[in-house]
Design goal:
With 268 residues, the chain is α+β, with helices and mostly antiparallel strands. Helix content is 23%, strand content 24%. It has helices spanning 4-55, 244-247, 261-266, and strands at 63-65, 86-88, 98-102, 112-115, 121-125, 136-140, 158-162, 168-178, 192-194, 208-213, 224-226, 233-235, 238-242, 257-258. The strands form 5 sheets. It has a 4-stranded mixed beta sheet with strand order 11-10-7-14, with no helix packed on it.
Length: 268
Amino acid sequence: MMSRKFRTLAAWIVATSALAHAQLDENSVHRRAVEAVIWGMPVVNYDLMYQAAVQANGGFNRIIYWSRLPDWKIQTLTPNPDSIYLTPFINTKNVGPMVVEIPPVDQGSITGTIMDVWQCALEDVGPAGVDKGRGGKYLILPPGYKAKLPAGYIPMPYRLTVPAKAPVKQYWSAPVYDRATHAPIRHARWPSRSSHTPGLQTNNDGSVDVHFGPAAPSGKESNWVPTSSEGVFEVLFRFYGPEKPLFDKTWKLPDIERVSEATSSSRQ
């Protein structure tokens, strides 16, 4: 027969366990609420800026220009009070590809970033961008755009230059994955390029340029891996049968770099 002392202890353990579960549930709900606020903050702030643009007779595919330095009346998050802002809100849904033309930097300063609605940076412009302060035409493509790219624009592709004499007994491979899922990008024409790819073009010095982007650079489709214009991608470079120069670092794979369409197409 259970003693009163043991029954009291058992009841206390049950009560404590129920309280712990309730506290755990409350903490979980609170944590998810905080994460939701942090996750949604960039797009909510974007919408607030867009609604303010609409009130100023602006809108999609128009540029909002601040004619003087900001003061307290600009109630967006952490604005820079020492910069004059130009803010275009681009929407390709009904108009197709759009071009943002950045003028060359003379004696002034241009600091800017092309970003998506989540305020994830896609490309810098000005001296820190692909145009290097010389000015350029940045091509903004709709999701799923497959037509040939016009010459003279910067569609923000990426390039990986694989140096000559890659230290592999078998082959190397440069597959692309969706950064959000770490799986192959849906509906891509192919997921990778490798040293076994038929028709792979080689530069004069024996190196190979692998291009990543929503559309192939002109004349470089055999070296191109498609990416999605709707998300972020990642590349997992693989060495099959790696040899000593890889491990002793006498052969090094460089970083992937952003390049302009003109640079991407003209390199030999």
